[in-house]
Design goal:
single chain; 90 residues; alpha+beta; Arc Repressor Mutant, subunit A; three-stranded antiparallel sheet; 3 helices; 44% helix; 23% strand
C-alpha cells in the first residue's frame, strides 16, 4: 500500500461522532471501534477523498506537521483499518 492507493468504505459501516471522537460500528461483525481526534480527522477526509495522497494534502493544509510523519501516520492508520476489515484498499 502507498499513498497512491484508494480506499473503499463498505456500506455496512456506520459512524457516530461524539465530541471529538468517532465511533464506528461494523454491522457485519457487530463490533465497535473508537477513533481519537486525529483518527476522526483522517476518517472525515478519507470518507470524502478516497485517495490517500489527497488525505495527506488536506492534513498538511490544515496542520503544521512534518510531511514524512503525516505519510507514515496515514499509512499506519489505514493499515490498521484494513486489518480490522473496516475498509478495503484498491
Amino acid at each position: 500500500m502507498t499513498l497512491d492507493s484508494k480506499v473503499i468504505i463498505p456500506d455496512t459501516l456506520f459512524l457516530q461522532k461524539v465530541d471529538e471522537e468517532t465511533i464506528l460500528l461494523d454491522t457485519v461483525s457487530q463490533e465497535y471501534f473508537s477513533l481519537n481526534e486525529v483518527g476522526s480527522v483522517i476518517w472525515e477526509i478519507l470518507s470524502d477523498k478516497k485517495e490517500l495522497t489527497l488525505v495527506k494534502d488536506e492534513i498538511l493544509a490544515r496542520y503544521e506537521i512534518d510531511e514524512s510523519q503525516v505519510e507514515n501516520d496515514i499509512l499506519k492508520f489505514v493499515e490498521a483499518l484494513a486489518e480490522k476489515k473496516l475498509i478495503t484498499i484498491d
